[in-house]
Specification:
This protein has about 160 residues and is mainly alpha-helical. It has a single domain, classed as Four Helix Bundle (Hemerythrin (Met), subunit A), CATH 1.20.120. About 80% of the residues lie in helices and about 0% in strands. The chain contains 4 helices and no strands. The longest helix is centred in the middle third of the chain and has 33 residues. It is elongated.
Length: about 160
């Protein structure tokens, strides 16, 4: 197993878990459900923690693929820049989510505001992660992003 393999395995976790946490957190806030909010925070924490090794393995993954035919250095750099923003957002989300739970445990007056801030961060982080994932897919899967191409079949329609 190399860093590209590790990166690809782990990078999908934050991309799925953080938007799921945002949906659950929104539901928990709307329904005033402490258990749903806490579950959402646990999922956000897991997604944020998984972003750490995924991000760190990205540099090694770049080293393995950057010299391969058909791989664009420009696309790698775009992916890397957006992924770094997503990474830092996920760490801020981690701190905000944990703060929300700590405030709720103390019945603090800022609990609702902290959860709302966590929700906003989870949404922004989700969008940024989705964009980073899209750019990452362009590194080795340009066929998935071809626009206006005609697919040919084996049959002859003359």
């Amino acid at each position: 197993m190399n860093s590209a393999h590790i990166h690809l395995m782990l990078v999908h976790l934050p991309v799925v878990l953080i938007p799921l946490a945002a949906l659950l957190l929104g539901w928990g806030i709307w329904r005033s459900s402490s258990s749903v909010r806490k579950t959402a925070v646990a999922i956000a924490v897991l997604g944020s923690v998984c972003s750490i090794p995924a991000f760190l393995a990205g540099e090694g993954a770049e080293d393995l693929v950057e010299d391969r035919p058909g791989v664009s250095e420009r696309v790698i750099e775009q992916h890397e820049e957006v992924a770094e923003v997503a990474f830092w957002l996920s760490l801020v989300l981690l701190a905000a989510a944990l703060t929300s739970v700590a405030l709720e445990a103390r019945s603090h007056s800022l609990t609702a505001r902290a959860y709302s801030t966590s929700l906003a961060l989870a949404i922004v982080c989700s969008v940024t992660l989705a964009y980073a994932a899209n750019l990452g897919g362009r590194i080795r899967h340009p066929e998935a992003f071809a626009v206006g191409t005609v697919q040919h079949t084996d049959r002859d329609d003359d």
